[in-house]
Amino acid sequence: MKKRWEEPKILVQQFMANEYVAACGEENKVYKFECNAGINDPGYHYRVYLDNGEELTSRWRQYGPCGATHDASTKDDFLSGYMDDTNTRGNDDIKVIIWTEGGTDVHCTTNLNMDSWVTAKS
Questions:
Q1: How far apart are CA 31 and CA 69, in angstroms?
Q2: DSSP code of 115?
Q3: Among 76, 70, 73, 75, which Cα is nearest to 109's?
Q4: Are 36 and 118 in contact (CB under 8 A)?
Q5: SS3 content of the chain, % helix, strand, coil (to 5)
Q6: Can you give the pLDDT at residue 19?
Q7: DSSP label of 32
Q8: What is the average per-residue pLDDT within 50-70?
Q9: Which of 53, 97, 56 is CA-nearest to residue 78?
Q10: pTM of the prediction?
Q11: Within 13 Å of residue 21, how many CA atoms lie on the same side as its CB?
Q12: Residue 103 DSSP SS3
């Protein structure tokens, strides 16, 4: 039997995915929420209100910034509101975004552009 030379052939197959797996996404994503609205001094207190006028603080439990950066889930509720310095006579109506840490403790920031907030995976 005589051997016959054939030109080499390259066969290319296109990959067609048949399943979708998300390796990244919003799962466990957190905002690095900075509690920085107001003066961080024990002598300064603020009352915090939602845009509809509902007060989130009371006469006995007023807000003061803790200055900490909290890991706040992107799935948490971030409320629009304002705060008023109890040390001044008029209404200051300082616009803030409010995060309540599970509805228990009030934290506020004056950075109203949530797209600029630092995010991370928890």
A1: 9
A2: G
A3: 70
A4: no
A5: 0, 30, 65
A6: 59
A7: E
A8: 88
A9: 97
A10: 0.74
A11: 4
A12: coil
- CA 104, 106, 109, 112 dihedral sign is positive
- Which of 112, 119, 104 lies closest to 57 in space, CA to CA? 104
Using 50, 70 and 90 to split pLDDT, how confident is the model at 61? confident
Instruction: Give just the sign of the alpha carbon dihedral 74, 77, 79, 84.
Output: negative
40 to each of 2, 45, 67, 108, 119, how far by Cα in Å?
93, 9, 7, 12, 24
Q: For residue 25, name the pLDDT band (cuts at 50, 70, 90).
A: low
Rg of the Cα atoms in the chain? 27
Cβ(34)–Cβ(116) under 8 Å?
Answer: no
Amino acid identity of 33? F
Residue 105 to residue 101: CA distance in whole angstroms: 6
Under a CB-based contact definition with an 8 Å cutoff, are residues 106 and 97 in contact?
A: no
Please state the rounded mean pLDDT for residues 99-117.
90
